[in-house]
Automatic annotation (TrEMBL):
The keyword Repeat applies. This is Uncharacterized protein. Coiled coil: none annotated. WD repeats lie at residues 17-58, 59-100, 101-142, 143-184, 185-215, 226-267. InterPro entries: WD40/YVTN_repeat-like_dom_sf, WD40_PAC1, WD40_repeat_CS, WD40_repeat_dom_sf, WD40_rpt. PROSITE patterns: WD_REPEATS_1, WD_REPEATS_2, WD_REPEATS_REGION. Pfam families: WD40 (PF00400). Keywords: Repeat, WD repeat.
Length: 305
């Protein structure tokens, strides 16, 4: 339970990871926060021990820059989206490719697992999102409706809804039960670059317009417009109880927002460059990972509960 949001987050650890040979595009943590997964313009993915910084494995096979990556909720699999127009599903234990998913006609920008580990959603420059069956690697349905490239995606905690964010400045919410469009969320004035669902069903979207919007997706209405980020919002993370939201912007600033009021309660600064990934660990600590050229910087911020 979040009891005292006015207290300081204290930075308790910084680690550096350096092995990629190209710009790092995405950093994600495993659900237990033991592994950091990174992908790069060098066409590879790396798995790291988040505590020690040890490189655990390299995954190679893509023929172009890898733009997005994601873990399954059980951590048995991870997925990647590439400018080679493919999505790949990998075995986490061995870093071997299990499936190559082809269906996009242009570069793929985003990929997300459903929490029940049954489905995968991807999106790219062809303006489409695609729903995939994880077990057999089959294309289930092409979700069409955006007017420009799809750059971000997320799936609700109950695995019933998927959201896609686009260069057309909208967020579309899809039913994974009917595989049809539920609603279109409008209000952003720039590309929608990041999406995140809370445990209670709220949806947060971050944009190039420097704002974060928090929605009730089934109602199609915005609860809060969070302003002041000042730059492209790269990544978002709700706390485990959904009471606070972390946002990281291009200007290296991480902000913590109280979801009962929509107010910014903390500003955290420390990355040399932008944070590309953030998550709340089971302990309540906020972990952020950012790109420094071909390296990554991992920071841990601890909040007392």
């Amino acid at each position: 339970m979040w009891r005292n949001p006015a207290e300081d987050f204290t930075k308790v650890g910084v680690k550096y990871f350096a092995r990629h040979k190209g710009e790092v595009n995405c950093c994600v943590f495993s659900p237990d926060c033991q592994i950091l997964l990174t992908c790069s313009d060098d066409s590879r993915l790396h798995l790291w021990n988040a505590r020690s910084g040890q490189l655990l494995a390299k995954a190679s096979g893509h023929k172009g820059p890898v733009k997005s990556c994601a873990f399954s909720a059980d951590c048995k699999l991870f997925a990647s989206a590439s400018h080679d127009c493919s999505v790949r599903i990998w075995d986490t234990a061995t870093a071997t490719c299990q499936s190559v998913l082809t269906g996009h006609r242009k570069c793929v920008e985003t990929v997300s697992f459903s929490p029940d580990c049954k489905s995968l959603i991807s999106g790219g420059w062809d303006k489409d999102a695609i729903l995939w069956d994880v077990q057999c690697g089959a294309l289930v349905r092409v979700l069409s409706g955006h007017n420009d490239a799809v750059q971000s995606s997320a799936v609700s905690r109950d695995s019933r809804l998927a959201a896609t964010g686009s260069w057309d400045c909208t967020v579309k919410v899809w039913s994974l039960l009917t595989q049809r469009l539920e609603t279109t969320l409008e209000g952003h004035r720039g590309n929608v670059t990041s999406l995140c669902f809370s445990v209670s069903g709220m949806l947060a979207s971050g944009s190039w317009d420097g704002t974060v919007r928090v929605w009730l997706p089934r109602a199609g209405s915005a609860i809060f417009v969070l302003e002041g980020c000042g730059a492209w919002v790269r990544t978002l993370a709700f706390s485990r109880d959904g009471l606070v939201l972390a946002s990281a912007a291009e200007n290296d600033m991480v902000r913590i927002w109280d979801m009962s009021t929509g107010k910014c309660i903390k500003r955290l600064q420390g990355h040399e460059e932008s944070a590309l990934g953030c998550t709340f660990a089971p302990s309540g600590a906020l972990l952020t990972a950012g790109s420094v050229g071909s390296s990554q910087q991992l920071e841990k911020w601890q909040q007392d509960y």
